[in-house]
Design goal:
Layout (H helix, E strand, L loop, with lengths): L12 E10 L2 E9 L3 E5 L6 H9 L10 E9 L2 E7 L4 E2 L7 E4 L11 H5 L8 H14 L15 H14 L4 E5 L7 H18 L3 E5 L2 H7 L2 E6 L2 E7 H6 L4 H6 L4 E10 L4 E6 L2 E6 L11 E6 L5 E2 L19 E11 L3 E8 L8 E6 H6 L9 E3 L6 E4 L2
Parallel strand pairs: 3-9, 3-10, 7-8, 8-9
Antiparallel strand pairs: 1-2, 1-4, 4-5, 5-6, 10-11, 12-13, 12-15, 13-14, 15-21, 16-20, 17-18, 17-20, 18-19
Helix pairs in contact: 3-4
């Protein structure tokens, strides 16, 4: 009996160009997927689930005048067209060999776990169905639950059953829509780790929908940021979080410090100087084209990258291009939020005509080691390499 989830072909690729025009909403996204986990990330109503439904062939717009684009799978030298609006091609969902787990999971309450898992194997021999079920139930740690109904399972167990059913058809790739939303934190992390392990062992391409920032960062190889039906940015996980393409992307991925600034001019080699209100900041040179002096820009820096200085003697900021520390800003503490392991602070720069507050996050032990429980006027540093410059948009 063959493995029910054989390794994917190394050069297997999905090419998706999806256009949908619905009443009050339009979707236009284009991307390519290889042997990786691609997370579709964005707020509710961004078009993430509709994108997944279009890939699976279950979106209701299929065949209507509002459906356009092309979806193909390239496996070696062979191209399979799943959807082509211009040529009138639409492969049925059951013939696409894609494992799809919707938000609702789609389990049949009147069937046992084993019957749910093997539902897509109708037409196969009983012996083959039972063999696939045994392998997958063991893989998903459900070996002793095959006779139970979905209503007798926990939320995490139902998620595992839905994933096992998606794998039973030996899919070319997995489509997962908010797979862990209803689960508690420990169960989410455990199933997320199982998904990563499965992906690494089998090499299955995965498209996963989520609006949870931590989940996106933990699971993704690449992230596609969607908003209002448009693809704002797609790229490696670290790149999207560290170098968002715009203020909107920065906000969506949870970067709390997005500063409105204006370009002053050149700084030390490899940098330029921008003005954040009355505060001059050195910033690493962005890729071409570089903004001109006087041009408005946005700066992004994560709350965890705002550094608190240890000594009061370091309060004086070095002038841009001068010696010593750069981008040192004296502040006063506006408010603090204590967590079990981290502390979040909101700090107001002391400069005249002060800009907006800065938000920072640091481990609880660092908070006490730096004496921030006693210091009300700490100084922070915005290191040039952590400041990401974006065009104003």
């Amino acid at each position: 009996m063959a493995d029910p989830t054989p390794p994917a072909t190394p050069d297997l690729q999905l090419h998706a160009d999806i256009v949908r025009a619905l009443p009050g909403f339009s979707l236009a996204v284009r991307f390519t997927l290889g042997r990786e986990v691609l997370v579709l990330f964005g707020p509710s109503g961004a078009g993430k689930s509709l994108t997944l439904q279009a890939l699976a062939g279950v979106d209701r717009s299929h065949g209507r005048s509002g459906a356009g684009g092309r979806i193909t799978i390239v496996d070696g030298d062979r191209e399979t067209v799943l959807f082509d609006a211009r040529r009138g091609i639409r492969v049925k969902p059951q013939d696409r060999r894609l494992g799809y787990v919707p938000q609702s999971l789609g389990l049949f309450s009147h069937l046992s776990v084993t019957e749910n898992v093997t539902y897509g194997l109708r037409g196969r021999s009983r012996r083959e169905r039972e063999s696939v079920a045994r392998r997958l139930l063991s893989l998903m740690q459900l070996r002793d639950l095959g006779d139970r109904r979905p209503g007798q399972l926990s939320s995490g167990q139902r998620q595992r059953v839905a994933l096992a059913r998606a794998l039973a058809v030996a899919p070319r790739l997995l489509l997962l829509d908010e797979p862990f939303t209803a689960l508690d934190g420990p169960t989410r992390r455990a199933l997320g780790a199982e998904l990563r392990r499965l992906h690494e062992q089998r090499g299955l391409p995965v498209v996963l929908v989520t609006h949870d920032v931590d989940e996106a960062f933990a699971l993704a190889d690449r992230i596609a940021v969607l908003d209002a039906g448009r693809l704002l940015q797609i790229g490696p996980r670290e790149e999207v979080f560290a170098r968002p393409a715009s203020r909107r992307v920065a906000q969506l991925v949870g970067i709390e410090n997005v500063l409105s600034a204006r370009v002053r001019g050149d700084g030390p080699p490899g940098s330029m100087v921008v003005e954040w209100g009355p505060i001059a900041l050195q910033v690493a040179l962005p890729p071409q084209p570089r903004p001109a002096p006087g041009e408005p820009v946005d700066l992004a820096i994560a709350a965890s990258q705002v550094m608190v200085l240890k000594e009061q003697g370091e309060l004086a900021a070095a002038p841009p291009g001068g010696e010593g520390r750069s981008n040192v800003i004296p502040c006063r503490t506006l408010r603090q939020e204590m967590g079990r392991e981290t502390v979040r602070l909101e700090l107001q720069p002391l400069a005249a005509s002060t800009p907006a507050p800065l938000r920072l996050e640091l481990p609880a032990y660092a908070y006490y080691r730096l004496g921030l429980d006693r210091r009300r006027t700490p100084a922070v540093q915005l290191k040039p390499e952590f400041l990401h410059l974006m065009p104003r948009g």
